[in-house]
Amino acid sequence: MAKEKILITGAGGQLGSELRAASKNYPQFEFVFVDKDEMPLDEPEKVRSVVLEERPRWCISCGAYTAVDKAESEPELAFVINGEAIGAMAVACKEIGARMIHISTDYVFPGDSATPLKENDPTGPINVYGASKLKGEQLALGNNPDTVVIRTAWVYSEFGQNFVKTMIRLMKEKPSISVINDQIGSPTYAADLAQAILHIVTAARWVPGTYHYSNEGQISWYEFALAIRELIGSNCPVNPISTEQYPTPAKRPHYSLLDKTLIKKTYGVEVPDWRKGLAACIGRLI
Ligand SMILES: NC(=O)c1ccc[n+]([C@@H]2O[C@H](COP(=O)([O-])OP(=O)(O)OC[C@H]3O[C@@H](n4cnc5c(N)ncnc54)[C@H](OP(=O)(O)O)[C@@H]3O)[C@@H](O)[C@H]2O)c1
Question: What 8-state DSSP symbol labels residue 233?
């Protein structure tokens, strides 16, 4: 019998790379990894033709315009990649009966909550990236309700660029560093998220809709930096600063802790504590 095909976009990104690593443990599937060359998300018509050509059973949508600050100055491109292309993918998936799992973000929320965010809490992005990702969610579920959208946050891995790798580099290079202490959330080790996605693919039942996934626990970026410092055995002083002291082109939500109850209850997904993921990632990096 032919193996079920899983098409994964954003293959060279953090999550795409972790899915590629994890795919070795799932020989029952045929994995097809695509990035800009094979499926340019800035050309939504091509997105459709690649899906129709490949005819996967599953389409895992990790490719995205993720340059949060740059998006403020090129909103059109962000909306094409994070919005229109995702809408086109959903239409194509519907056409061939493929199940789509689309990755979205905590940045769809305004960040003014005081309690962990549930899937149906009101959205209200405060930057272009968040607005473009919200558009993608709406088009994905609007064009094909048989879709799973997973909102995640603060993603890091041994691959690509991320906060953990930047902190390790700066702690080696600088006499001291300053890190924001008034933005609260929970980090996500991309390898853990990759496991959660493949858990859903292999689950006995498929329940479309929106879910939240990050690692367990609640911290600020400053506390995250302190944990990184401890794990790499650095003595670099780390100073807590406020968001106002570190202005960026795009605003960031102050509070974006995701409530994971629904994905745990529906799919039995295990959510490791953020410390465990961080230790595993740093173990691979140093
Ligand atoms: N990183 C985070 O903190 C975070 C937080 C919340 C949600 N998310 C979401 O999680 C998902 C995975 O994120 P990630 O951290 O793995 O992102 P990433 O490392 O930035 O990877 C994004 C991937 O998309 C590709 N891509 C960008 N523009 C493209 C285009 N025009 N056509 C085709 N491919 C294109 C990139 O290719 P190039 O490398 O060649 O540009 C890269 O392979 C994304 O949907 C993201 O929005 C991420």
Answer: T
Burial class (CB in 10 A: 0-12, 13-18, 19+), 171: buried
* Structural domain count of the chain: 1
**What's the pLDDT score for residue 286?**
87
Residue 255 CA to ligand 1 center (angstroms) comes to: 22
> Which of 74, 108, 155, 159 should be mutated for ligand 1, with most atoms under 8 A from CB?
155
| 266 domain-assigned | yes
| Ranges of residues in the chain whose predicted pLDDT is under 50 | none
pTM: predicted TM-score of the whole model, two decimal places: 0.97
pLDDT tens sequence across 136-161 = 999 999 999 999 999 999 999 999 99
Yes or no: say if 184 and 214 are a contact pair by the CB < 8 Å rule: no
| Full domain range(s) for residue 143 | 4-161+187-217+252-272
- Is the CB of 44 inside a 6 Å radius of any atom of ligand 1? no
Q: Is residue 226 part of a domain?
A: no
Q: How far is residue 92's CA from residue 88's CA, in Å, rounded to a whole number?
A: 6
CATH assignment at residue 209: 3.40.50.720
Domain membership of residue 97 (yes or no) is yes
Residues with active-site annotation: 129
